[in-house]
Amino acid sequence: MIDTNVCTFVDDLGKNLYRKKTYYTICIEQEVLANNKEEADQKLSDCGIDYSQINHEITETKDGVETYMVDAEYTESGDIEYKGKVVYEDDEDAEENGFVEIDPYADEIDIPDEIDTQLNLEYEQKIGK
Question: Is the whole model's pTM more than 0.90, yes or no?
Answer without folding.
Answer: no
